[in-house]
Amino acid sequence: MSDAKPKAVVLLSGGLDSTTTLAIAKSQGFECFALSFDYGQKQKSELVTAANVAKIFNATEHRIMKISLSDIGGSALTDDNIDVPDFKESDEIPITYVPARNTIFLSYALAWSEVLDCQHIFIGVNALDYSGYPDCRQEYIDAFSVMANLATKQGVEGQKINIQTPLINLSKAQIIQQGVALGVDYANTTTCYQANENGEACGVCDACEYRKIGFFEAKIKDPTRYQA
Amino acid sequence: MSDAKPKAVVLLSGGLDSTTTLAIAKSQGFECFALSFDYGQKQKSELVTAANVAKIFNATEHRIMKISLSDIGGSALTDDNIDVPDFKESDEIPITYVPARNTIFLSYALAWSEVLDCQHIFIGVNALDYSGYPDCRQEYIDAFSVMANLATKQGVEGQKINIQTPLINLSKAQIIQQGVALGVDYANTTTCYQANENGEACGVCDACEYRKIGFFEAKIKDPTRYQA
Description:
2 copies of one chain form a homodimer.
Chain A: E1 7-11, H1 16-27, E2 31-38, H2 45-56, E3 61-66, H3 69-72, H4 101-116, E4 120-122, H5 138-151, H6 153-156, E5 162-164, H7 172-181, H8 206-218
Parallel strand pairs in A: 1-2, 1-4, 2-3, 4-5
């Protein structure tokens, strides 16, 4: 083994969860390669936020891949014909679910990690304060890991890929507390599904609601900039 | 159940294997949605070939998704700095391997199938006459299926996604025989890793070599158009 830091590809949207995930990967001694997607999301300002966050946490590289999920449609986050709804308690998977999004994101991370000769992928999925998305659960991540190690040259040759999900069992309040302890300034992050071009949040979508409750329960002042 | 045909998303490169796969899906009574990728491959003529094949087999829709595998690099098929090598017998995974390619392709197929309310995805992977790619093996496909059914809303709600690999245990000769029996004219397909803009094959890469041997062993005249 060399003294070089182990490498990690970190999926980074510039939101609260992925920013905290990057801070955690950094604090664990990884050399971080941040990966974001321009996937036709309505909320374009998250890419600016992500670039800023990658710089703050000194990522070796920040790559934004342009992919065309909006060609597929089927979600309020990518389809111009479907509005982002206000927050509502429900057991159903909401219309903000983007079909197979994490699978597509992790597949690109897998490809990039193989080219980088990197065996760690960090993703900020969270199974508690989430919207019921199937691709945020541990059993999904475990299945992806099994598949990933059969899919790739490095997996087959014995260099096991690890999908790291440091937030998966944390509440939003615990995520915020951990991030603050690691020096994250959440004023630099954007969580809202329909933030405006200045990165100001709507305050009424699911993502805003979970974030607000998180700051309240963490007893930390909410630094989010809301639309007037 | 309605009388409507079941739907299938069919991954289609316009090569011998994927064209045969489309013919098989069609012959099994599926309504076919063909999916191709403009992924920065050197061999652009395959997209023209794929569009033609989709039309011949009467696909309900043929979608070409533009994705940026060349941004990731690491393969002779997508990286301008790496030449496509001539055919060579070897136990090693060759430089034509594209990191995580089938995983990315299947992930998009999964997303599209969910939007289409479709439970079948056809992919023409083949575990025999192939180049040792890890993502062409049955165990990889099985692992992808498990993951896919945990990843998606329709999987979680009990509408199981089936990844169909009708060619996986066939020799190239058997694939050709089956295709000819289903009316495939292989003159309309392009297999070569570095075909020219007219779709004429190089005759020396792995893909050309396996195809040539296939026609020879099938005792069927090779209709491939080679570069002068």
